[in-house]
Write a structure and sequence with these properties.
The complex is a heterodimer of chains A (about 150) and B (about 100).
Chain A lengths: L1 H18 L5 H10 L2 H4 L4 H7 L6 E2 L3 E4 L3 E2 L5 E7 L4 E8 L6 E6 L7 E6 L5 E9 L2 E11 L7
Chain B lengths: L5 E7 L2 E7 L22 E8 L2 E8 L8 E7 L6 E8 L4 E7 L2
The chains are: A alpha+beta (about 150), B mainly beta (about 100).
């Protein structure tokens, strides 16, 4: 039964998109297929890594996470992930204690530096994890960011 | 169609630094409005940056990217006067493309 329900929801969303005329049916399908839904909905680090197709993740000192030690506003936390691992193909940014861990996945084509910066949301103090795929091996680095939502500096 | 992006592309030696500021609500789908109803998720899910017909960065995003997303990276090549194109698509199928000239 759950499968049927999932299917109905899926077609419902697609139908809405197509009927608004913003997307052709094929484009909508392609977009839905390309976006890694299971990875973005993963609730644990192990699930997220698995959904991204990773395994045997090793800690690496070649991955640097830049970000504040203390973020006063969890709604806007500037973070950057830089990987010096040779042959880096993809960089993923995960927040360990967010409801869904995966925040962003970046594909790094040859010629592009494996160093991306963006701003993320954090629900509470947590480790920010940079997960890197290089030569089909997986590496990670992390940094703890404390979030003071009350803005009282405590 | 969303509001225009602000794109700054700067040639620095052999590479080009790209900074993009997009205008988007990035609603997580976990927030409730004043009447207690969940606000449906609405966020940019795919971003592609191209230069001279070649993809220099592609990304998949979740709702955990902050409102009005910022993105910064650097790619090899690119010279003053070249064009950099940024396209995003959100989870409701809305899309926007903007271009900037490298300087």
């Amino acid at each position: 039964m759950t499968h049927r329900r999932d299917f109905l929801q899926f077609t419902g969303v697609l139908g809405a998109l197509v009927s608004t005329g913003l997307l052709s049916a094929e484009q909508a399908l392609a977009q839905q297929a390309a976006w890694n839904k299971s990875a973005f909905e993963a609730k644990s680090l192990a699930d997220a890594v698995k959904a991204l197709g990773g395994s045997g993740v090793k800690e690496s000192k070649d991955i640097t996470i830049t970000g504040p030690d203390i973020a006063e506003n969890g709604a806007v936390v500037p973070v950057g992930v830089a990987s010096k691992v040779p042959g880096t193909q993809a960089v993923h940014i995960l927040v360990e204690k967010n409801p869904s861990l995966l925040a962003a996945s970046f594909n790094i084509p040859a010629g592009t530096e494996a160093n991306v910066s963006t701003r993320i949301k954090m629900g509470e103090s947590s480790n920010v994890i940079g997960l890197v795929k290089a030569n089909n091996q997986w590496f990670m680095g992390s940094k703890e960011v404390k979030v003071t939502l009350g803005g009282c500096g405590g | 169609m969303g509001d225009p992006m602000r794109i700054r592309a700067t040639a620095q030696g052999d590479s080009t630094e790209v900074r993009v500021l997009m205008a988007h609500e990035m609603e997580t789908g976990q927030r409730k409005d004043a009447s207690g109803k969940l606000v449906p998720a609405h966020y940019i899910s795919n971003v592609t940056v191209t230069h001279a017909g070649k993809v220099v960065l592609s990304a998949e995003w979740g709702a955990a990217i902050a409102k009005n997303p910022f993105l910064q990276f650097r790619f090899a090549g690119g010279k003053k006067g070249d064009e950099v194109t940024v396209t995003w698509t959100d989870n409701k199928g809305d899309t926007r493309t903007d271009k900037a000239v490298i300087n």
